[in-house]
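To assess whether the prediction recovers the assembly geometry, we first specified each molecular entity separately, as shown.
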Amino acid sequence: MATINDVAKLAGVSTMTVSRVLNNSKHISAETRARVEQAIATLGYVPNALARSLRFKQSNMIALILSDITNPFFTAVARGVEDVARAHDLSVIFCNTDESEVEELKYLQLLLQRQIDGCLLVPSSNAQESLMLLRSKMVPCVVLDRRVADGQVDCVRCDSEDGAFQLVQHLIALGHRRIAMLSGPPHVSTASERVLGYRRALEDAGLPIDENLIVFGQYSEESGYQMAQQVLAYDSRITGCFAANNFIAFGALQAFREAKLRIPDHISLVSFDDIAYANTLEPFFTAMTQPAYQIGLRAAEMLLERLNGEGPEQAREVLLPIELVIGQSSGPAPLSRV
Amino acid sequence: MATINDVAKLAGVSTMTVSRVLNNSKHISAETRARVEQAIATLGYVPNALARSLRFKQSNMIALILSDITNPFFTAVARGVEDVARAHDLSVIFCNTDESEVEELKYLQLLLQRQIDGCLLVPSSNAQESLMLLRSKMVPCVVLDRRVADGQVDCVRCDSEDGAFQLVQHLIALGHRRIAMLSGPPHVSTASERVLGYRRALEDAGLPIDENLIVFGQYSEESGYQMAQQVLAYDSRITGCFAANNFIAFGALQAFREAKLRIPDHISLVSFDDIAYANTLEPFFTAMTQPAYQIGLRAAEMLLERLNGEGPEQAREVLLPIELVIGQSSGPAPLSRV
DNA sequence: CTGTTAGCGCCTTCAT
DNA sequence: ATGAAGGCGCTAACAG
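The predicted structure of the complete assembly is given in tokenized form:
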């Protein structure tokens, strides 16, 4: 790979002159500039951004750490991030933690070595270790999707508790009384808050809460499948089910089908999801939809502000609106169930 | 951020000694090593990978260039790539081209500046410009999902023509005679090859080919929607439809629903997709499924080999198996249609 | 076992 | 308008 020196040699100038041409410095004679540009072209010279980064102590790379890019919700988030990044010539390094705090910290270590300028983080837990690490290295960070105890970091997310409340209220309004709650990892804020919303909706309606109908697991299809089976084994008469996310909902769907439970005739199933996937003409899932793309976009923009030293001193929390989309997976509670 | 020099000073040794400790060099006294490690810990020192890269002329970063991470197929590919990369301490920079060759080249330029070690590319066209650029810079590349004219590059993909052939054969076996073909961008190999397979299946069955039933567009929902409408406007009696990918299928689904066409009673709809999304108990879409995750995995492994200077001299082409999954979106052709 | 020198490619500072 | 020197953080090669 040709270096700036090769260009300089070929053009018969000093490296500084080449550097000036590259950076559009004013004080360059048109003739020299032309000669340098000629040399650049013939050598196919490409500036070394690593060397540049070393000088400037700025890599123009940011990290996107999330649990699983395979989840359409996070995919949309990632796309929002990438669109902003591209517009600013930032490169995005992406990392899947699979909700493992250990993986998250391992990644962070690697990313700090790579001198990332900033970090977008979907925290795998509410432990603040990652945030403290980033702060100790003065690397700006914006937390996405989830709440963290730490009060000093920007955060873009939706109101999980309220969303859960509305979803369960929807089921209650349809006449459902025995409603299962299949949630994610308890240390993840969205999972615990959705349970809180579930509880509040039941209490609000004066309905009893059966703790055995509340199950925590993983945000995965397998886990959703297992949780649904577990709940059915405990009480086959449930008529409603609230899955804390789309993967859990798919898993539950499987379990219900295998149990010969028709949706929504025998059982209603509601969940959280990305808005894009629910926005069809006749959505199947009744879901609380979140603007995933916007979450990524907004978070990336906020990170950019921090990188530029802009924005208010204190941490900001942005709550993006959610919307209940009613699909075919929820309907009136059946009068009786075996 | 503390540097290696700060550590050296604090430990009262030279920077080289610190470097040796960091790289687990043998010839270090236990006592010195301990002192250095102590200094590293108290300073919270993190080695600068950029400086290291500059020395080694190796960044340990690879690029993943694809059309749209939002497509579950590519998401699964990305996940496969990332899993391999993580296992080898490589970082993945990801880029969406939206099928634009211009974007692709712009990205490539940026990535070359960042000194990526290798590139995984879902080419936006069969133009070889990108490949020639990479080759001129000696950056190894593996092409994913699509065929390119260039015969000197490793490629991991599925057999689109054969898959299309089987899908259309499936429709024909069900009695369908008037089958629409909604494809992607004509310069993308998967799009053109799926049309070829479509043609071959019809010819094989001795059925006439109506060129007006073959439409090219984008691999997007909107485009699928429009193409379906266009085809319906031309001939409302079609009973079968082959969408070249999942997004097109979704768009077509919308259009058919709006036209009050029930699936599969009035019209059968088949497409290509990722295997994970079709592998449910009762899949809705009849689809030719591709092992997306495996494609990413395999491609990343092949790239790794190239990075290590391994593998055969000449280019390899890996064809991964595809599988027809029959869902509820295809059924016997109706006897008559309005 | 440890230190010195030099250089990866680039750019800021100071000369000319 | 152009060039020379020096250093960003790191390590290979060579001392000692």
